[in-house]
Amino acid sequence: DWTPDSFIDETVEAIQEKVGNDKVVLGLSGGVDSTVAAVLLNKAIGKNLYCIFVNNGLLRKNEFQSVLNQYEGMGLNVKGVDASERFLEALAGLEDPELKRKAIGKTFIEVFDDEAHKLTDVKWLAQGTIYPDVIESVSATGGPSATIKSHHNVGGLPDFMKLKIVEPLRAIFKDEVRRVGATLGIDPELLGRHPFPGPGLGIRILGDITAEKVRILQEVDAIFINGLKEWGLYDKVWQAGAMLLPVNSVGVMGDERTYEKCVALRAVESTDGMTADWVNLPYEFLQKTSNEIINKVKGVNRVVYDISSKPPATIEWE
Ligand code: XMP
């Protein structure tokens, strides 16, 4: 019988046997899988685990600092690397979603490789790969958007990718990962987080990305997500977020005509992201959220709610 406790015992022992006294590097994303993998490895090898958490500047509002603090509080040996500027430079002027993904993926790899090179004698690369990822990478149809969107599609082989691989979650499913995480004492709020795409807000700002657009979208997203939490809706939704549209629309404020940005809110129900239905959020919630966004976020004068299901619409707009 599979239980989190037996899984943890067996996995810790297997990791110790596999990597011995070698050093291991792992990239933390703030997501459930990489976090649970890190805590398991930390339990097995302690300070020989070197975690790297990269801020690509496209995370949610305050997320880099708060998640980094959380990681440190969990006793992880983690280095936070703020590479926001580098990502913005790599993205400057790019409008095509796939080009933006490639630029973000490539920059991440460069930053991670630079950091990995600062560590001496690392032998292993740990990853939070879970069973569905394993299936996905060998299946013809691909997993979430695999064939439609090039998620981490980058050329060349940086040095850290030549390391030996350790993937402690390779045989288990998401719900099992969450149970293991809970048994390891990881904060339930962290374990219950919605999925968030690797390119982050970079694919939720339609068209080209600027620091100002990131700031606007972070504010809008924070109001929406905090509202979902306050209204007890967060856990009923599989994934939610806001998109900054590349159009201005006319509005009116006092006697003035405005010509400002429009944002779309999206919340979906799903089990694996392959198909999804838009969520019938209460009108009252949408009304309050819309008012708060328009009143508080400078530069936004219109909010719409996305009522498209997948297929044919995807969850992300890019
Ligand atoms: P779509 O938009 O294809 O998204 O319906 C399905 C799920 O995948 C996530 N997604 C991504 N995740 N890199 C990621 O790590 C990406 O480039 C990417 N594109 C989409 C999306 O957030 C949803 O959960």
Automatic annotation (TrEMBL):
This is GMP synthase [glutamine-hydrolyzing]. The lineage of its organism: Bacteria, Pseudomonadati, Bacteroidota, Flavobacteriia, Flavobacteriales. Catalyzes the synthesis of GMP from XMP. The keyword Nucleotide-binding applies. One of its GO terms (molecular function) is GMP synthase (glutamine-hydrolyzing) activity. ATP binds at S29, G30, G31, V32, D33, S34, T35. Residues 2-193 form the GMPS ATP-PPase domain. It catalyses: XMP + L-glutamine + ATP + H2O = GMP + L-glutamate + AMP + diphosphate + 2 H(+). Its EC number is 6.3.5.2. Keywords: ATP-binding, Glutamine amidotransferase, GMP biosynthesis, Ligase, Nucleotide-binding, Purine biosynthesis. The chain holds residues 194 to 511 of 511 of the full protein. Pathway: Purine metabolism; GMP biosynthesis; GMP from XMP (L-Gln route): step 1/1. Homodimer. It is an enzyme of class 6 (ligase).
